[in-house]
Structure formats: C-alpha cells, structure tokens
Specification:
With about 425 residues, the chain is mainly alpha-helical. The chain has helices at about 75-110, 120-160, 165-175, 175-200, 200-205, 210-220, 230-245, 250-255, 260-265, 275-300, 305-335, 340-370, 375-385, 395-410, and strands at about 5, 10-15, 25-30, 35-40, 50-55, 55, 65-70, 110-115, 115, 270, 390. It folds into three domains: about 5-70, Beta Barrel (Butyryl-CoA Dehydrogenase, subunit A, domain 2), CATH 2.40.110; about 75-230, Butyryl-CoA Dehydrogenase, subunit A, domain 3, CATH 1.20.140.10; about 250-410, Butyryl-CoA Dehydrogenase, subunit A, domain 3 (Up-down Bundle). It is about 65% helix and about 10% strand. Strand 8 and strand 9 form a beta hairpin.
Length: about 425
C-alpha cells in the first residue's frame, strides 16, 4: 500500500523474505516480469502530482541475480533508505518554508490596512521574525549533519570500504540526527505554511493564491518517512542503545559533570547574551540527568511510556538544533559577512535560544510530572531551575528587528 509513483513505475524495489529466512531481502523487480497489477489511484488530501497506488504480486517471477546486495540485507537497506529520506525530507521542508516566508513577506508589504502595509503591524512582524528564526535554525542543523555524513563516508572510503558500503555506514552513523531533523524540519514547514495562510487571510484560504495547495501538501511530511511520533521515539531509543548496549556513546562519563555544574549554577539566577555555549552544555546535562533517573526508575517498562520518551526526545531535539545554530554563528563570525546581516544572525540565535529554553522547561516539567511518585521529583525540578533558567533577552524586540530586516529586503534572503 501507499506505493509512491507506483502508477507509472517500470522498476520496483521490493522487500520480502526468501523461504523461512529470519531477515528480509531486497529485490529489483521489473514490471515486465509479469504478475504485477496495480490498484486504483488514491485520492489524497495533497501531493496530487504524485501517483499513489496499491501494488499486487501474483506469481511474479524474479531472477536470482536481481537480489539487491546480499540475501538477508533487506532490513539494513530499508533503514538506510529511511535515514537518507529523512534528511532529504527535512531539507525539502526548509525549502518549502523559505518559499512560504517569502510569500508572506511579499504579501505583507503589498497588503494595505488603515493606510499602511500590514508588515508594519507587530502581530505580523511576530510571525515573520519567528518563521525566519525557525528556518535558519533548522537549516543550520541540516548543513551540520550533511557535512558530518560526507566526512564519515570519506573516512570509510579511505579505510578501504567501497563507495556503496561507505554510504550505508555513513548514514547509519547519523541515524539519530536524521530522525531529529525529519521531525524538526517538517514541523517548521507546517508552522510556516500555517502562518503564511494566516497572513494572507481570506485570500490564503482561496485556491487563487496557491497557499492552500502548500497547506495541503505540507501535511504529509509529518507522516511519511516514519511519522514524527515514531521518529521521536526512534531518536531517543537509538541514543540509549548506543549508550548502554553497543557502548558507542559514553553518557555516564558526560553525566559525571552534573554535580559540579549544578553547584556552579547556584550562583546565577539567569543566563545572559554571550553564554549560549554554556546554555547548550547545561541542556545536555539536564537531558542526561532526566533520562538517567527515568531509566533507573522504569527500567524495561520505559519502552511503554511513550509520552515520557517523546518529552525527552523533544529536549534532545532542542539541544541538537540549538548547538548547530550556535556553531554556525561561531563560524559566520570568522567570515566576511556584512555587519547588518551578521547582526540579524546573532539576533536569530538569541531568539531561538530563548524559545528553545522555554520548550526544554515545558518538556522537562511534563516528563517529571509523568513519572511515578518517588522518582526524585524534587531534585529533578531543581535541575530544571538551574540548567534551564531564564535567558534574559527581549523577544519582542528581537523578532521585530529580524522581521524588519527581511521586510526591507522584501524576501527571505538567507
């Protein structure tokens, strides 16, 4: 079911078991082999340019040499297809978000109300400033992850792996990041297209402006390549697996920093501009502490506590996106960037960190309150108070400055 482009495809990649094999194998199956019939085209909410059908196999012969890779490798291939698809979907979502924001800026400058453009109103500036910041943050994480995957593939090739092996292993290395990016990028897209329709008002609801098509098309992105709920649980589960089963990541050693940092944070009630690295580091320590306490209490039962896992995954996501944005800003400071543009970059980082800390506090409080009584709730709340304390900036002024920059350019120019 739900076979994308199935209605006009001549070649299919099919996953199935051979005899009583434990694992799936992958096959290159040509329509010309016979035994393939198609269902009716699905009538979908959006992405109407994409063919979606059921595909039926009835005595479809497949030559032995059409096994893709080795017998039993199908599951590994499928997982890496998903990893690749997730980061590409995130990148595509950011492209759609940029287009939506540009449409919002153009329309806001053109639309007059009370003898001035609606771009001059604070409520509209809020939306434009927020969209721009979310896009820039998500894009930062995509650039970072893409670069890391390229570097890992190059290192594997240098170590003697074939190009195809390197691609598979390189993507596998960044399974967690690809899942996080898929969730974050698609939710940024949904936010941007929803706010774009709102800015257009009644015209946005009309098919004439084309915004409604984007609204319908964007909704699928939170469903395919694994729903966002599945990807939230996958990212957390994969991290725990690498920390405590395969021992690829040493969270215990990282957690040893918690007592000393907790003590140091007693001496300040807030964060200030310029302390972004410290904020990200403290987010990490809070995540490790909360995950560790929950794991100790729930043990194997934690797999059934999906709400708690998704809270922790949201914190993990905010850490990765915030750190990626902060690293991008550090790099941009070393480059020849126009002073005005660099000032906006700094403000987007500040606004993102401000909002990110709020999300971390909310997710942490929900996770703590959802645990059974006697799970060191008092200690955990103190950690939230110390590690996710308020970041002192003026969000209204930041959003207005960011929005004014792009409104003046009449486009999203980054």
């Amino acid at each position: 079911m739900w076979i994308t482009n199935g209605g006009f495809a001549d070649i299919f990649i099919v996953f199935a078991k051979i005899d009583d094999d434990k694992n799936l194998s992958a096959f290159i199956v040509e329509k010309a082999f016979g035994g393939i019939t198609l269902g009716e085209e699905e009538k979908k909410l959006g992405i109407k340019g994409s063919s979606t059908v059921q595909v039926f196999f009835n005595d479809c012969p497949v030559p032995t040499e059409n096994i893709l890779a080795e017998r039993g490798d199908g599951f590994k291939i499928a997982l890496n297809i998903l990893n690749s698809g997730r980061i590409k979907l995130s990148a595509g979502s950011i492209g759609g978000s940029k287009y939506a924001l540009s449409q919002s800026i153009n329309y806001s400058n053109e639309r007059k109300q009370f003898d001035k453009s609606i771009a001059e109103f604070g409520a509209i500036k809020y939306k434009i400033g927020e969209m721009a910041t979310k896009i820039f943050a998500a894009e930062s994480a995509i650039y970072r992850t893409g670069k890391h995957i390229d570097e890992k593939e190059a290192a594997l090739i240098d170590a003697g792996k074939s190009k195809s092996e390197a691609k598979v292993l390189g993507l596998r290395e960044y399974t967690i990041e690809c899942a996080l990016l898929k969730v974050y990028g698609t939710e940024v897209l949904d936010y941007c297209i929803d706010e774009t329709l709102q800015i257009h008002g009644g015209m946005g609801y009309s098919a004439e402006a084309g915004i409604e098509m984007g609204y319908r098309d964007s909704r699928i992105t939170r469903i395919y390549e694994g729903t966002n709920e599945i990807n939230r649980m996958l990212s957390f589960g994969e991290l725990m697996k690498r920390a405590f089963q395969t021992k690829e990541i040493d969270l215990i050693a990282a957690g040893k920093k918690i007592p000393m940092r907790f003590f140091k944070e007693l001496f300040s009630a807030t964060y200030a501009v310029g302390q972004e690295d410290r904020i990200v580091e403290n987010m990490k320590l809070l995540f490790i502490a909360l995950s560790g306490i929950a794991g100790q209490k729930l043990k194997l039962k934690m797999i059934d506590e999906q709400e708690i896992i998704m809270n922790l995954s949201d914190i993990l996501s905010e850490i990765y996106i915030s750190e990626s944005l902060a690293l991008r800003v550090v790099k941009l400071r070393t480059m020849s960037i126009a002073k005005e543009k660099m000032a906006i970059v700094e403000k987007m980082m500040q606004l993102h960190i401000y909002e990110s800390l709020k999300k971390v506090r909310t997710a942490a409080e929900s996770e703590i309150d959802s645990l059974p009584e006697g799970t060191k709730q008092g200690l955990q709340r103190k950690m939230v108070k110390r590690f996710a304390k308020k970041y002192v900036v003026n969000p209204k002024d930041l959003r207005r400055d960011i929005a004014d920059y792009f409104i003046q350019k009449n486009d999203y120019t980054f």
